[in-house]
UniProtKB/TrEMBL annotation, chain A:
Swiss-Prot/TrEMBL keywords: Calcium, Cell membrane, Cell projection, Cytoplasm, Differentiation, Lipoprotein, Membrane, Metal-binding, Myristate, Nucleus, Protein kinase inhibitor
Protein name: Calcineurin B homologous protein 3
Family affiliation: Belongs to the calcineurin regulatory subunit family. CHP subfamily.
Keyword Ribonucleoprotein appears in the UniProt entry: no
Membrane topology: Lipid-anchor
Originating species: Indicator maculatus
A GO cellular component annotation in the UniProt record: lamellipodium
Signal peptide: none
One Gene Ontology MF term: protein kinase inhibitor activity
Automatic annotation (TrEMBL), chain B:
Keyword Lipid metabolism: yes
Pathways involved: Phospholipid metabolism; Lipid metabolism
PANTHER family in the cross-refs: GLYCEROL-3-PHOSPHATE ACYLTRANSFERASE 4 (PTHR23063:SF37), PHOSPHOLIPID ACYLTRANSFERASE (PTHR23063)
Keywords assigned: Acyltransferase, Lipid biosynthesis, Lipid metabolism, Membrane, Phospholipid biosynthesis, Phospholipid metabolism, Transferase, Transmembrane, Transmembrane helix
SUPFAM superfamilies, sorted: Glycerol-3-phosphate (1)-acyltransferase
Protein name, UniProt field: GPAT4 acyltransferase
Gene name of this polypeptide: Gpat4
């Protein structure tokens, strides 16, 4: 049945209404075919998702233990409804009554989610190879694009990132990779917290007498 | 000789008289108008009466729910989340613009580009467009059919009695009547066309064949109590053209064919269908394929173009979606029929689900169950719009032409125009669609990259 209390690991007070939770629960049951947990294969039943070039990374994000706020490392095999809600909570819309500190935490949470998407080996840094992977995935499927072009685009972007984060580098310096702090720096000025959310439609009820 | 009690003979006589009277009434009020293509307007009156009753029933349910202080749930047709309408390009431009100091026309790849796809992905995981389309459209008022009622516990005694009466009428009166009519219609069609098969080809045969077909389809329309409104009949398909319509159920054929004389296209089935098909083709040249031939696209295309090029032959009736959709949207049209190069006459069919849901969910119900459901509904109400003819422009390919026709049909019928393949109900997505989205994105990035390296 539906969650009776919100997951205690959430750092901010829960803002999803019980109506919304109930609808997500119905969706969860649809995806899991009435089982209690979802595995990676269950996401295959969503045709619209095939559209998406980073489908693999998105599905992966659901099972990433860092996103699930679990202590251990690596990937979970299956997730239950509480975990599903935890992932969905990264896409909560911003609230009117949030103060500076809450907003900042809100933003960091969302950016951490994106960071984990890039950092596939979980070492806390986005290396050149990982960056290349993402670019290649996004640009794959274009028959006219050679692998070399995708690579050079990724390399160029990485250089640019390095220059933002570290400034001018000496000829012998090697840029290890983008850490989360550097990542935050690059997103400065972009209001991700206002764009990274999914809004619920209000459900219609006919007679509503409480 | 044995003695019959006077009581028995009275009963037998009464029975005989009432059956004869019923039969005569049937003949006069239903079949004769069907033969001549006129209508007494009985069905429209029936429809209006039913509507009043439904409104009353819905009000009772609402009142019942209010008394018990529970909210009623209207099933949501639009999904549970508001999907962002911005396109890929818009979104990426906005994200780049908001980051400081970067010029718009020198983008290569930005970390933020991933964001659009990420959000779209989460949106589809939360709520999927496609699987929603394949279940029957959900109603807002109750039409006294238990199959469409979700708020069953709020029904009072009066409503239950009404519903019971409805069941009685539908199953004991309407159903046998409709079955009798259907039987008449089909047997007339089979015998009529077989007889016509013996006539030599010529104007007389054509004329008779047309009227036999029309008459039998009209009887079948009455067998379903279908109340059809035709719009723009001046755009009806002509010889040498292809008539294209959206597909909700096998009844679509009967609806269109009762207003025009078409050549059908399809696969030969066994059983009763096969008998009907074989009889029909004796009177006029329909295009039937064997099961093995259907797979061969070139053969199909060849036979269709031969038919179309012969101007004396009838317009072909085709449903390009390939499967039944639940009449809230139009799915992808298969391009085969649009490659032939004939004039296309689009037709939009929209059913009003209030009287009876015509959608055939072939994965849920078989054909017989479906027909039974149809014949025990109140009525099938629909509108047919004949749209002006379209031809393929020189700079379009078949797929673009198909999409253009599809949009016109969707717009006219008030249906949502979806790019998805109706075949998705059964199979998975084709990889070409994934490519489209990726191509668009990479064009944006690579195009700009190339510009930069050139300068």
């Amino acid at each position: 049945s539906v969650l009776s209390s919100p997951p205690h690991q959430l750092s901010s007070p829960p803002t999803v209404t019980s109506e919304q939770i109930e609808r997500l629960h119905r969706r969860f049951k649809q995806l899991s075919r009435d089982q209690l947990t979802i595995r990676k294969e269950n996401f295959d039943s969503i045709p619209d998702l095939e559209f998406n070039p980073i489908r693999g990374k998105i599905v992966h994000a659901f099972f990433d233990k860092r996103n699930l706020r679990q202590e251990s490392e690596g990937l979970a095999d299956e997730i239950n409804f509480e975990d599903f809600l935890t992932i969905m909570s990264y896409f909560r819309p911003i609230e009117m009554n949030m103060d500076e500190e809450q907003l900042d935490r809100f933003r960091k949470e969302k950016l951490k989610f994106l960071f984990h998407m890039y950092d596939s080996d979980h070492d806390g840094k986005i290396t050149l190879q990982e960056y290349r992977n993402v670019v290649e995935e996004l640009l794959s499927g274009n028959p006219h694009l050679e692998k070399e072009s995708a690579r050079s685009i990724a390399d160029g972007a990485m250089m640019e990132a390095a220059s933002i984060c570290v400034g001018q580098m000496g000829p012998d310096q090697v840029y290890e990779g983008i850490t989360f702090e550097d990542f935050l720096k690059m997103w400065q000025g972009i209001d991700i917290e206002t764009k990274m959310h999914v809004r619920f439609l209000t459900m219609e009820t006919i007679a509503h007498c409480y | 000789m044995f003695l019959l009690l006077p009581f028995d003979s009275l009963v037998v006589n009464l029975l005989g008289i009432s059956i004869t009277v019923l039969f005569t009434l049937l003949l006069v009020f239903i079949i004769v108008p069907a033969i001549f293509g006129v209508s007494f307007g009985i069905r429209k009156v029936y429809m209006k009466t039913l509507l009043k009753i439904f409104q009353w029933a819905t009000l009772r349910i609402e009142r019942g729910a209010k008394e018990k202080n529970h909210p009623l749930y209207k099933p949501y047709a639009n999904g549970i989340i508001a999907k962002e309408p911005t396109s890929l390009e818009q979104e990426i431009k906005e994200l780049r613009r908001s980051s400081s100091g970067k010029a718009l026309d020198t983008p290569e790849f930005e970390l933020s580009d991933i964001f659009y796809f990420c959000r779209k992905g989460i949106e589809t995981i939360m709520d999927d467009e496609v699987t929603k389309r394949f279940s029957a459209e959900e109603l807002e008022s109750w039409n006294l059919l238990s199959r469409t009622n979700y708020n069953f516990q709020y029904i009072s005694l009066r409503l239950t009695v009404l519903w019971g009466l409805g069941v009685l009428i539908r199953y004991c009166f309407l159903l046998p009547l409709r079955i009798a009519l259907a039987f008449t219609g089909i047997s007339l069609l089979v015998t009529g066309t077989t007889v016509l098969g013996y006539l030599p080809a010529g104007r007389c045969k054509e004329f008779l064949s047309k009227h036999v077909h029309l008459m039998c389809y009209r009887i079948c329309v009455r067998a379903l109590t279908a109340i059809i409104t035709y719009h723009h009949r001046e755009n009806r398909p002509r010889n040498g053209g292809i008539c294209v319509a959206n597909h909700t159920s096998p009844i679509d054929v009967i609806i269109l064919a009762s207003d025009g004389y078409y050549a059908m296209v399809g696969q030969i089935h066994g059983g009763l269908m096969g008998v009907i098909q074989r009889a029909m083709v004796k009177a006029c040249p329909h295009v039937w394929f064997e099961r093995s031939e259907v797979k061969d696209r070139h053969l199909v295309a060849k036979r269709l173009s031969e038919h179309v090029q012969d101007k004396s032959k009838l317009p072909i009736l085709i449903f390009p979606e390939g499967t039944c959709i639940n009449n809230t949207s139009v799915m992808m049209f298969k391009k085969g029929s649009f490659e032939i190069g004939a004039t296309v006459y689009p037709v939009a069919i929209k059913y009003d689900p209030q009287f009876g849901d015509a959608f055939w969910n072939s994965s849920k119900y078989g054909m017989v169950t479906y027909l039974l459901r149809m014949m025990t509904s109140w009525a099938i109400v629909c509108s047919v719009w004949y749209l002006p003819p379209m031809t393929r422009q020189p700079e379009e390919d078949a797929v673009q032409f198909a999409n253009r026709v599809k949009s016109a049909i969707a717009r006219q019928g008030g249906l949502v125009d979806l790019l998805w393949d109706g075949g998705l109900k059964r199979e998975k997505v084709k990889d070409t669609f994934k490519e489209e989205q990726q191509k668009l994105y990479s064009k944006m990035i690579v195009g700009n990259h190339e510009d930069r390296s050139r300068s």
